[in-house]
Amino acid sequence: MQQKIHLLEKEMPTSYYNIQADLPHPLDPPLHPGTGQPIGPQDLAAIFPMELIKQEVSHERYIEIPEEVQDAYRMYRPTPVIRALNLEKALDTPAEIYFKYEGVSPAGSHKPNTAIPQAYYNKKEGKKRLATETGAGQWGSSLSLACKMFGLECKVYMVKVSYHQKPYRRSMMRVWGGEVVASPSMDTQAGRDVLAKFPDSNGSLGIAISEAVEDAAKRDDTNYALGSVLNHVLLHQTIIGQEAKKQLEKVDRYPDIIIGCVGGGSNFGGIAFPFLQDKIGGKKLRAIAVEPASCPTLTKGQFRYDFGDIAKMTPLLPMHTLGHAFMPPAIHAGGLRYHGMSPLVSRVYLDGLIEAQAYRQLEVFEAALLFARTEGLIPAPESAHAIKAAIEEAKKAKIEGTKKTILFNLSGHGHFDMTSYDAYLDGKLEDYELPTEEIDRALAELETYPVIRN
After folding, report:
1. Residues in Cβ contact with 451 at an 8 Å cutoff, skipping those fewer than 6 apart
2. Which long-range contacts (CB under 8 A, 24 or more apart) does 417-426 make?
3. Is 0.85 surpassed by the pTM of this model?
4. What digits encode the pLDDT tens for the residues 392-445?
5. What residue ranges do the domains of the chain occupy?
6. Nearest CA to 255 among 223, 285, 221?
7. CATH class for the region spanning 66-108+232-446
8. pLDDT digits (tens, 9 = 90+) for 319-330
C-alpha cells in the first residue's frame, strides 16, 4: 500500500489553470473606490505589474509558468501527496484520506507558490521593492524569501496580534531580508489613524492592507503584493491541485471530497479549482471550504461589493464579506482572520459548486492533535480546519458504510505556532462564535454600496 505519492520534477505542471475560462457565470467587475465604475488596467498599474493585471482579468484556460519561476519552484516542488493511514486506523473508517503537503516549502506553507511569480514579474518590470501585509506570517515570510531570490527589498506590515503571538515568523522574514513592523504602525497615515482611535488595537488584515497599499502608492520604486483573495493569486496556487490530480492518478484514485481551509481563499482555490473544472464538466464531486466560526465569511457573511481594507483604498470587490470595518477576534488561526473572501471562491460558492463549513477553535485544535499524534506532522492552526472537516467526513463514511476518497490540503506546518498549542494544552484557549449582531454592525456600513443580486 503506497503511503507517499511523488512526482518527478519533469512532471511538474508548466501552466497555471484559470477557472475563469470555465465558470458558469462570469465574475462581476471590481469597481473604482471613488467613482463606483468598473476599473480598468490603468487603475491598477500604480501598484501592480502589468503581467499580473493581465492575469487578473484573463479568461485563457491555461497560462504558462515562466521558466525562471519553474526553476525557483524546483527548490521544493513537486510536493508530496500522502495517505493518512494511521489517521484512518484511528478513526476506523472505510474512507481513504489523502493530503497534499505544502509544508515542505522553505517557508513552511503554500504561499511561495504565488510569492515567487509575483516577485519575478515585479523584478521584470523594474521595481526595486515590494510592500505587503501578513496575518499569521506565512505570506510575509514567503514574500521575503521570494524578494531575496529576485533581488528586491520587502516591507511587511504584520497584524499586531500575530506579530506578538508568532515571533519566529517575523524572525524568518528578517533572516530573508524582510523589514517587519507590527500593524497598525506609525509608519503610515492609515496606521496612525487607527492608533489615534484605538491605541490598543490588535490589528487586522484590513488595516495591514491599508498600510501596505499606502506604502506602495507613495513610492515609484515600490509595488504592492497580496498573498490571497485576488484572481492572479489563486491562479498561481492551482499548481497544487494540478499536481494532486497527477499523483492520485498514479494510484488509480479520484477524490469524492476535496477540502481546504479558507481565509482569503488561496490554498482552497489552489487545491480545488483544477478538480472543479471536472465538476463543471459533469464529474460528481464535493468541495468543502472550511472557516473559523469566529470569522465566518462564507457561512454568515453577505455577498456584496466591499473594500478589501479598512481605509477604503482598494477597489470594491464582489465577494462574501463581514464588512471591511469588521474587527476579528484574536484567534490563533491568524491567517483566517480576514473579513472578505476571494471573488472567485465567492462565485463558485454562489453557483453551488462548493460547500462551506465553520468550526470552533477548540474542536479544530482537538483535530490537530489527533492528526499530529497519528501522522506525526504538526499542522498550522489554519490547516487544522481542513483536518477537522476531513475527520468529520471520514466518520460519516463509517456510519454510512461507504468507501470515500478524501483529499485535503495541508497548507502548512505548525512549527511556529507552538505557543498556540501550549495554550490549548494548558486549557487557556476559548471558543468564540461570532454573534450575528456584530456582523450586522459591520455590514451596516455597506448599505450605500451596490448590492449584487443573483
Report:
1. 304, 305
2. 417/136, 417/166, 417/332, 417/378, 417/380, 417/381, 418/378, 419/165, 419/166, 420/165, 420/332, 420/365, 420/381, 421/365, 421/368, 421/369, 421/378, 423/332, 424/332, 424/362, 424/365, 424/369
3. yes
4. 999 999 999 999 999 999 999 999 989 889 999 999 888 877 777 777 877 777
5. 66-108+232-446
6. 285
7. alpha beta
8. 999 988 777 665
